[in-house]
Amino acid sequence: MPPRKTVLKLSGVERHYGQGETTLTILKGADFELRSGEIVALVAPSGTGKSTLLHLAGLLEHPDDGEVYIGGQSCNGLPDNERTAIRRSEIGFVYQFHHLLPEFSAVENIMMPQLIAGLSKAEAKERAGQLLDYMRIGHRADHRPSELSGGEQQRVAIARAVANAPRVLLADEPTGNLDPETASYVFDALEALVRQSGLAALIATHNHELAGRMDRRVTIEGGKVVEL
Ligand SMILES: Nc1ncnc2c1ncn2[C@@H]1O[C@H](COP(=O)(O)OP(=O)(O)OP(=O)(O)O)[C@@H](O)[C@H]1O
């Protein structure tokens, strides 16, 4: 097997929030690497900084110090429009709640990011259809989110997140509002997608059973990312 490439790297990352007179330190000298083809669980108690770490990794926030690299490129000093371009092409996000557009069907929701990226309608529709089949919800393509079950909605959200073939998938409690059996089924689909595409995934979860199925587990301790 060829050596796996590091697709996401955090180096000496600091993040502090001002709270009145005091400063809340969330990350302090945090280092982390994610390689293509791997799925890493981020398991840490509530309020320790999982969402903060995902936002920094996804270029949604700037660290107060340290560096975030996507595909080997340092992103801190880049202007916002370049950070946005990298975020759109290299990173996919999945949240606890699907955030699908309610007025559009499943297939249209997955087409949307591709159309924004400049693909033709026919190309976007073909890829969206493939992803829906891959997530085993091809028969739901024309349904709106409100007509889908929670597990189906999350599978559409995952398909949308990877529609533009990003390098990195960042997920914040992607199965947090699903029952254990549905969560397991959604994770099966996500795992198959990562294995097949060589994507890399960092998944914040409170679900220890799912975390146990991932390649590695990390937590946040004293502002640092440590292996479990
Ligand atoms: N913009 C902000 N301003 C001030 N404090 C913030 C801000 N964002 C997050 N925090 C604080 O930073 C800490 C870490 O928040 P974060 O959302 O990253 O935690 P989390 O581990 O994802 O928690 P949960 O599992 O509950 O979602 C929390 O104490 C939170 O209150």
Walk me through the structure.
- There is one protein chain.
- With 228 residues, the chain is α/β, with parallel strands linked by helices.
- Helix content is 35%, strand content 28%.
- The chain contains 7 helices and 10 strands.
- It has a 6-stranded mixed beta sheet. A 4-stranded antiparallel beta sheet has the order 2-1-4-5, with helices on one face.
- The chain starts with 5 loop residues before the first strand and ends with a strand.
- 42% of the residues are buried.
- Bound molecules: adenosine-5'-triphosphate.
- Adenosine-5'-triphosphate (ATP) binds next to strand 2 and helix 1.
Summarize the topology:
Layout: E1 6-19, E2 22-35, E3 39-42, H1 50-57, E4 65-70, E5 73-74, H2 80-90, E6 91-94, H3 106-116, H4 121-134, H5 150-161, E7 168-172, H6 180-197, E8 200-204, H7 208-213, E9 216-221, E10 224-227
Parallel strand pairs: 3-8, 3-9, 6-7, 7-8
Antiparallel strand pairs: 1-2, 1-4, 4-5, 9-10
Bound molecules: adenosine-5'-triphosphate.
Residues 17, 24, 26, 44, 46-52 line the site of adenosine-5'-triphosphate.
Quick overview:
The protein has 228 residues and is of the alpha/beta class.
Main features:
35% helix, binds adenosine-5'-triphosphate, alpha/beta, 4-stranded antiparallel sheet, 6-stranded mixed sheet, 7 helices
